[in-house]
């Protein structure tokens, strides 16, 4: 681990999130300040479990994929023994990436610079013109460096740069139950990601995407044109969609969970997602494997945020990668449900593309909002962002989770409480 950075004395980290009984505010500099961004990377991103990939992407021995852990390049690979490894994609000679492809199948990685060769478990097995190093040069310490921690939950691969981090299952806590419902949309309990990636980069802070994925307040306004299209096509009546979204007194809700996790939950479907409830054969298959008593929980539509870098949406996994305070890369990765008809999966995919794809009616609206957000917060004199919506009607559930109306800012508050807690833990360690 690198040494903790010296805090910028002009910024009081404790004063960036103001959590009062009837008001919750966040200082807009959390989206603009370069020093805070570097603290976030070190105090949050380098010490958290981060989603790095899915087991289905490296199914066979020899399969690999490259990605980043926070901002550090890594290789995930499945060895001959079937186990998954994560190692830094950095040659032990002079630091070039040893694997340039995003995914593939290989027994070895050959560094493009001076031709050092590593087995897919990271062991150095060849050096070009080796005699130049003499007999005393010890190659046993020149294997690719393993990522300190790697664990898998329900096919989701997480890694962490901090060797002391708590076990993944402990970190997930009550969020694991929601991941189970998400994965058990499959009658065989397995989701796969094999349908490619839609990647976009927006000129805004990473936390705007986090705030938005569990924001049930904006849909009627930001996605109004999509609702009108649904109306015109006869899919769903505009008034019905608006009524469903705004209704108070249903099980629709937004939740704030421990560790900054959160979710948006709607029992009667969400815009741009697939209506499973109407498919009798599919429901029957779920009942046979998972039991009738779990059906309603499994079919409830959710956007699940696992802080700080991944969302599980009904139709896809969404991964956030901060590039700078004002630049973020997002991977939207459609899911395939194992154990159901390909035709049904194809219909899901088309539905997904309609709302979340590159030329969709939904995700593109949100990206425009992130740009407006980033532009607006440059007016630093106005200082505060308000996240008070629903504070007065929030309640505490049986696992300690906070529950609000689906249009409330309950998950965003959970996220910023954790953000501040983690940033302050770093402060104590630095001092
Ligand atoms: S940098 Fe990899 S072989 Fe030289
Ligand atoms: Fe949206």
Give a verbal description of the structure.
This protein is an alpha+beta fold and 431 residues long. It has two domains: 51-153, Rieske [2Fe-2S] iron-sulphur domain (Rieske Iron-sulfur Protein, 3-layer Sandwich), CATH 2.102.10.10; 173-430, Naphthalene 1,2-dioxygenase Alpha Subunit, Chain A, domain 1, CATH 3.90.380. 29% of the residues lie in helices and 25% in strands. The chain contains twelve helices and 24 strands. The chain has helices spanning 34-45, 168-172, 175-183, 206-213, 219-222, 224-233, 238-246, 280-290, 295-299, 342-356, 363-376, 410-430; strands at 17-20, 23-27, 50-54, 63-69, 72-78, 84-88, 103-105, 108-110, 117-119, 124-126, 149-153, 156-160, 191-192, 198-202, 253-256, 262-266, 301-306, 310-312, 316-324, 327-334, 336-337, 384-386, 395-396, 402-404. A nine-stranded antiparallel sheet has the order 14-20-19-18-17-16-15-24-23, with helices on both faces. Strand 18 and strand 19 (316-324) form a beta hairpin. Helix 1 (34-45) crosses helix 12 (410-430). The protein starts with 16 loop residues before the first strand and ends with a helix. The mean pLDDT is 92. The structure holds FE2/S2 (inorganic) cluster and fe (ii) ion. FE2/S2 (inorganic) cluster binds next to loops.
